[in-house]
């Protein structure tokens, strides 16, 4: 007779493999360890192959057959989640509330435009809005505190999360107009910035722990959020990277100066929609994702952004001369 493993057996197998031990799996599943061991033994008996190597190792290690079965188990359980999600969306109508986590990398004008139209389209739907830095958007979605996330920093792929790129933004290294770096008058080198204070945002989520992005100075001040970083840079207390959408007006007015620093990576920063596989967005949240996609896909490239700033600065200079 062909083996016929149950979904429960596959879930237990997947949990043991992902947690690394039978005891950890029993805690994750809230079952006795003996029940977990018995379930795995039954699964192995049905399949007629050992899934874990138990002898001579403190922790169970997947056999070659177990590694092959692991991918099958993930696919089957993933398909089940998709089916459950589809049934849920068919049963449920318009949401009572949409909870969304937004990254500071999302241009504020796009955010305001989407929310203004959302209010008109769905007057009966309440809104819960959380603003997150770096990995916070992912954490809010994973914890269920946000139905959808709009942001970047997808540092680690997670099978329970669906991500889709819907736009882009970018960071620019800047300093106040009276900062020493702003007055050098030539492309900057690493030597120019090494001894200057660089302001860096700390990721409260811990998802990027041990990883620094574009940290070039020996002297760093670490702050909790982009807003504080923006204020301190504008006050001349250091230099650092800020989202282009945040500093548009500062660059136009001359309060901040873009630093010509090749060592600072200034590529496009992708923006994703993020949601749980098992918790699909309803009509209002789905509309919101598409609305953000429409606006973010129209955001200017770095070259166009710099051209816009230069044009506005020239217009301001001409107006002041009249």
UniProtKB/TrEMBL annotation:
Keyword entries, A-Z: DNA-binding, Transcription, Transcription regulation
Segments forming domain HTH lysR-type: 5-63
Pfam families: HTH_1, LysR_substrate
InterPro entries membership: LysR_HTH_N, LysR_subst-bd, WH-like_DNA-bd_sf, WH_DNA-bd_sf
Top-level taxonomic group: Bacteria
The keyword Transmembrane is assigned to this record: no
GO function term, MF aspect, one: DNA binding
Coiled-coil intervals: none
PANTHER family noted in UniProt: HTH-TYPE TRANSCRIPTIONAL REGULATOR, LYSR FAMILY TRANSCRIPTIONAL REGULATOR
Family: Belongs to the LysR transcriptional regulatory family.
Name of this protein: DNA-binding transcriptional LysR family regulator
Species name: Rhizobium laguerreae
């Amino acid at each position: 007779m062909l083996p016929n493993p149950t979904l429960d057996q596959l879930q237990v197998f997947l949990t043991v493999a992902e947690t690394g031990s039978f005891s950890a799996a029993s805690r994750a599943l809230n079952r006795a360890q003996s029940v977990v061991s018995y379930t795995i033994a039954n699964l192995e008996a049905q399949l007629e192959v050992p899934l874990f190597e138990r002898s001579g190792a403190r922790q169970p290690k997947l056999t070659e057959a177990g590694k092959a079965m692991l991918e099958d188990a993930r696919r089957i359980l993933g398909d089940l989640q998709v089916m459950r999600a589809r049934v849920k969306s068919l049963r449920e109508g318009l949401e009572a509330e949409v909870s969304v986590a937004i990254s500071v990398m999302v241009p504020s004008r796009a955010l305001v435009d989407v929310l203004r139209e959302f209010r008109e389209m769905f007057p009966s739907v309440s809104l819960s809005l959380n603003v997150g830095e770096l990995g916070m958007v992912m954490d809010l979605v994973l914890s269920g505190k946000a139905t959808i996330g709009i942001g970047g920093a997808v540092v680690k792929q997670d099978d329970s999360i669906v991500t889709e790129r819907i736009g882009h933004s970018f960071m620019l290294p800047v300093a106040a107009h009276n900062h020493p770096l702003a007055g050098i008058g030539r492309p900057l080198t690493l030597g120019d910035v090494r001894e200057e204070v660089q302001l860096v945002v700390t990721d409260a989520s811990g998802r990027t722990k041990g990883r620094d992005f574009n940290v070039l100075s020996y002297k760093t001040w670490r702050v909790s959020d982009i807003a504080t970083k923006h204020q301190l840079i504008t006050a001349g207390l250091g230099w650092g990277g800020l989202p282009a959408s945040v500093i548009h007006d500062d660059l136009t007015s001359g309060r901040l100066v873009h630093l010509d620093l090749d060592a600072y990576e200034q590529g496009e920063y992708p923006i994703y929609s993020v949601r749980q596989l098992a918790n699909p967005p309803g009509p209002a949240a789905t509309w919101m994702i598409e609305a953000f996609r429409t606006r973010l896909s129209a955001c200017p490239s770095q070259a166009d952004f710099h051209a816009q700033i230069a044009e506005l600065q020239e217009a301001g200079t001409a107006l002041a001369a009249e």
